[in-house]
Fold:
Amino acid sequence: MFNVRHRPLVMSIFGQTLFGGSRFIRWALSPFILLFGLLIPLLIEQWTPTQIAVMVVLEAMCITLLAGFWLPARLGHWAFRIVTGLVFLFYAGYLVDELTKFKVTGSDGEASPLDALFGFLIIGLPCLWYALLGRFTLQPRETPPEVSESEDDEDDDA
Structure:
């Protein structure tokens, strides 16, 4: 029967795909991240301190995501943890900002505290777990059972 405990979480699958070191993901996403990082500052008409702070965080996310793709895995893993930490901080700030407005619901397409809470729970907390633990789940990674040489020899004889 199907065992739910061994079924990976959606964020875990997402993390394995994005942060797994695939050459396809690296080459497919890098040009778009680079273009985003170069062009997004051009969209700002008036630079306020808030917009400068947001731009600095967005640029830092682009740089660390590219570093995670292109640096050796040992260093890239830490770059990905920085990216997810920044995403967590964004969602925590978004939640705090929406809760201070005391509006229970918004119209369609308008931000609301409920939307901020859902985003924080679904995206922000898993990003915090990855930033702190290096994985999207609270459970430790299961290591495959080691095969001893005697068991390996028995399999070859069969």
Q: What stands out?
A: The first helix runs from residue 10 to 18. The chain has one domain: 10-138. The two ends are 28 Å apart (CA to CA). The chain has a mean pLDDT of 80.
